[in-house]
Design brief:
Blueprint (H helix, E strand, L loop, with lengths): L4 H8 L3 H7 L8 H14 L5 H8 L4 E6 L5 H16 L3 E6 L6 H9 L5 E5 L5 H8 L5 E4 L10 E5 L1 H13 L6 E5 L5 H16 L5 E4 L5 H13 L5 E4 L2 H13 L9 E6 L12 E4 L2 H17 L7 E4 L2 E3 L10
Parallel strand pairs: 1-2, 1-3, 3-4, 4-5, 5-11, 6-7, 6-8, 8-9, 9-10
Antiparallel strand pairs: 10-12
Helix pairs in contact: 1-2, 1-3, 5-12, 6-7, 8-9, 10-11
Organism: Histidinibacterium lentulum
Keywords: DNA-binding, Transcription, Transcription regulation
Protein name: LacI family transcriptional regulator
Length: 332
């Protein structure tokens, strides 16, 4: 049986409005009455209804976690980390899956139905116009690991993609690989372009020709097809893959072609998903600073909920190089 405000009021010997004020942030109630109400609520197992509170105060305490790719390991990890970060700040997360959504007005309406105080977007495949509609729906929005970065118009928390590309190139070239290739996509995603720009800045400074192979999506199969295309053109000896799933596909293609990794070809990924550490892959990769990014995103959103306005902020964190088994040892 559901415990109601009326039940708590009767047990504590107070009015319904006193119970409501006790569980409303900023509500005026004496310390003695608060103690009586909280004791009665604990005894009965009462939990405030955030949606009911939203109708009264305009604040629900809920934050929408908007995703569009539940199969993405980074999305799943970010979802868990963001939920924990919000919980630590007195907020509760509600999942909103907009996979396949292309209509801006419908997307904004779906988000509005949850009465959330704000939204965290962990959605790499939503069209730019849908993202813009969510940002203009009358509640604070922070993008986490976005694929469209417009720092002048949006609050964003993610990784320093250019720096990540440079780090991958420097580590690869230090191991003696001199015929580099970049595998990434989709081509329209800003972070992919930034990772390429960072990687290319280093290879260009060494006067090295760089092969670039774009993919239509981010998957193991897409990485495998990309590597096969590069191999059909003569191949490369160093592959920087802008996502670990692409890197796993490249490894499979190289194995099928009889190319020894890391002796004949090296591979570096980005993300450090769980599969990257499996014994059959042992992928050398760049680890995303998930904890730092999600903490920054959650803190920024809560700040915007409490005090709307101000200039948008961009928080970009460096990746960490994770040595496993797909690059040779550094040259002396």
């Amino acid at each position: 049986m559901t415990v109601t405000v009326t039940d708590v009021a009767a047990r504590a010997g107070v009015s319904r409005s006193a119970v409501s004020r006790t569980f409303t942030k900023g509500g005026t109630v004496s310390p003695e009455m608060r103690a009586r109400v909280e004791a009665a609520a604990a005894e009965l197992g009462y939990r405030p209804n955030p949606l009911a509170a939203a109708l009264k105060t305009g604040r629900s305490g809920l934050v929408a976690l908007v995703i569009d790719d539940a199969a993405n390991p980074v999305t799943l990890a970010a979802q868990a980390a963001l939920s924990a970060a919000l919980e630590a700040q007195g907020r509760r997360a509600v999942l909103v899956n907009l996979a396949g959504e292309t209509d801006p007005a419908r997307a904004a309406a779906r988000l509005g139905a949850y009465h959330a105080d704000g939204a965290l977007l962990v959605a790499a495949q939503l069209p730019a116009e849908v993202v813009e509609a969510l940002r203009g729906a009358g509640r604070p929005v922070v993008q986490c690991f976005p694929h469209v970065v417009e720092a002048a118009a949006a609050d964003v928390a993610g990784i320093d993609n250019v720096r990540a590309g440079r780090l991958a190139a420097r580590k690869m070239l230090a191991r003696g690989y001199g015929r580099p290739a970049f595998v990434g996509g989709p081509r329209t995603w800003a972070p992919m372009q930034e990772r390429l720009a960072g990687f290319r800045s280093v290879t260009r400074s060494r006067d090295l020709e760089l092969q670039v192979q774009w993919t239509e999506d981010v998957s193991v199969e897409a990485g495998q097809r990309a590597a096969e295309k590069i191999l059909s053109r003569g191949g490369a000896d160093g592959y920087f893959c802008a996502d670990d799933r692409l890197a796993l596909g490249v490894l499979l293609a190289l194995e099928e072609a009889g190319i020894s990794v890391p002796d004949e070809a090296g591979v570096v990924g980005l993300g450090d998903i769980e599969m990257a550490g499996w014994p059959q892959f042992r992928l050398t990769t760049l680890r995303m600073p998930l904890e730092e990014v999600t903490q920054a995103a959650a803190s920024r959103l809560v700040a915007l909920i409490e005090a709307p306005g101000g200039d948008p902020e961009l928080a970009a964190f460096p990746c960490q190089f994770v040595e496993r088994g797909t690059l040779r040892a550094p040259q002396a």
